[in-house]
Design goal:
The structure is a homodimer of 270-residue chains. With 270 residues, the first copy, chain A, is an alpha/beta fold. Chain A has a single domain (2-41, 78-112, 140-269), classed as 3-Layer(aba) Sandwich (Carbamate kinase), CATH 3.40.1160. Helix content of chain A is 38%, strand content 30%. Chain A is built from nine helices and 18 strands. Chain A has helices at residues 9-13, 15-30, 42-51, 72-94, 145-154, 176-187, 216-221, 225-239, 255-260; strands spanning 2-7, 34-39, 57-60, 66-69, 101-105, 112-116, 119-123, 129-133, 138-143, 157-161, 163-165, 171-173, 191-196, 202-203, 206-207, 210-212, 244-249, 266-269. Chain A has an eight-stranded mixed sheet with strand order 5-10-2-1-13-17-18-16, sandwiched between helices. A two-stranded antiparallel ribbon of chain A has the order 3-4. In chain A, strand 11 and strand 12 form a beta hairpin. In chain A, helix 3 crosses helix 4 and helix 6 (176-187) packs parallel to helix 8 (225-239). The A-B interface holds A 48, 51-53, 76, 79-85, 87-89, 91-93, 95-97, 99, 101-105, 107-110, 144, 146-147, 150, 153-155, 163, 165, 168-171 and B 48, 51-53, 76, 79-85, 87-89, 91-93, 95-97, 99, 101-105, 107-110, 144, 146-147, 150, 153-155, 163, 165, 168-171.
């Protein structure tokens, strides 16, 4: 049985938080857990884009959501930072002292196949709707479960960068939460842990300890965009066979262990 | 039985040559061959270093050999270009239409463990010998054969970027020819193919068709530095059980197939 852990870009950008998460994952792996670790890294991609003279572009959806725009130049930096710098720094750290990890992207062994978003609707500077080419962003359509299974026979941790293979053989930027939820579903993981920079799902001034699956949609509507998506993805993963999902803070000591023990975060379960 | 193919940075930097090599490897894989493909990429690392405002540094050894100096900033670009951009572009291309490849570095599953060169002797600007810190360059000490075997059970092509794991958990730049020869030896490959931008081992104005192992050292001495090293590494791999080694041109149609058939290049055999 596998645990799928995802850590967002803000957590990865802090060396201290990153190191806490990785130490915890290494310890869990050494105690025999099989882990797929999906990392984000958007903030670091932005930093390196600027170093290379490419000003990051963001677009705003009709519902007001701001997201990164990935043209060919942006994709190149995204691949270099995600699959190069971050994936290999993480793997090298995890393999210090013991052989624990192998690092891949969704393009490797065609692990994540995605469909490119051909066109997207954005709000232009005048606040009017406009259709533009979708760039190199994709939506995950399938997971090569067998490849992940085989990798997890060899090592206890598979580190996955959020990149997928498109139908034309192109690399595509995919959402890290979606990658983690898709992988958890394909592997029928026992737990999906989504680490964030907040303490969990917050309603009013209270962190919810649990969300019954039946209430996920109602509660999701009361939260902000990013959290809303996380709750709905987690709920869908559970409907499709994942044991439980926890939305938990990443910036504590032993963040994964504490979330698994129910000490932190918000647990969504069947 | 495995074929190990290495293609140097100049070949990889030419889109046309790269595409010829990859098409040929894909075809061989589709006919059932198991291939480890080690890619170079020094010229592209230099290009991206400059884009990021890092002027590449080169050092000259007492015997007059010029080589790249890898400080921490240079290592970062090296990792981003090799393990990120090149490895994933190559893997995505090979996986277009069929699941053929998985891409890794020597840090993944601790595949290549290396010892960092603590100090190196260089000639300084005044032509005097000087000892400087070795930077992030390593010499390969061991290969995780089992990991490579398992990956080759899953896919027909494993793409390897020339990076290794150091004893402190650090990433190290390693020589591509050395990586290929070490892997070929560990796997007891049937053939090691070193693709270059020359037609093979040239003596006078003639490309040698074959070099008997017994003459490798003598002939190596009569060639330039890069070729000298390639011949000695190939010879050592054969002494240690590799079936044959071919130093062959990469910029032809079907460069690997033609080399394997004996139509191009210089073959070193027991």
């Amino acid at each position: 049985m596998v645990i799928v852990v995802k850590a967002g870009g803000r957590l990865i950008a802090s060396p201290e938080t990153r190191s806490r998460i990785l130490s915890d994952i290494a310890r869990l792996a050494d105690s025999g857990e099989k882990i797929v670790f999906v990392h984000g890294g958007g903030d670091i991609v932005t930093e390196y884009s600027r170093k290379m003279g490419i000003e990051p572009r963001f677009v705003v959806s009709p519902s007001g959501i701001r997201s990164r725009y990935t043209g060919p130049e942006e994709l190149e930096v995204y691949v270099m930072v995600m699959a190069g710098k971050l994936n290999k720094e993480i793997v090298a750290g995890l393999n210090h002292g013991a052989n624990r990890a192998i690092g891949v992207t969704g393009a490797d062994c065609s692990m994540l196949l995605a469909e490119r978003k051909k066109r997207i609707i954005i709000l232009n500077e005048k606040g009017r709707k406009q259709v533009i080419p979708g760039g190199y962003t994709g939506k995950i359509k399938s997971v090569n479960k067998e490849c992940l299974d085989k990798l997890l026979e060899q090592v206890n941790i598979v580190v996955v960068s959020p990149l997928a293979l498109g139908t034309e053989g192109e690399l595509l930027n995919v959402d890290g939460d979606q990658a983690a939820a898709s992988i958890a579903t394909a592997l029928q993981a026992k737990t999906l842990v989504l680490l964030t920079d907040v303490p969990g799902v917050i309603l009013g001034d209270k962190v919810l300890e649990k969300i019954p699956l039946s209430q996920a949609e109602t509660i999701a509507k009361k939260t902000g965009y990013g959290m809303n998506r996380k709750i709905l993805m987690a709920a869908k993963a559970i409907e499709n066979g994942v044991g439980a999902a926890i939305i938990a803070p990443g910036n504590t000591e032993n963040p994964v262990t504490r979330a698994l023990r129910g000490e932190t975060g918000t647990r969504i379960e069947p």
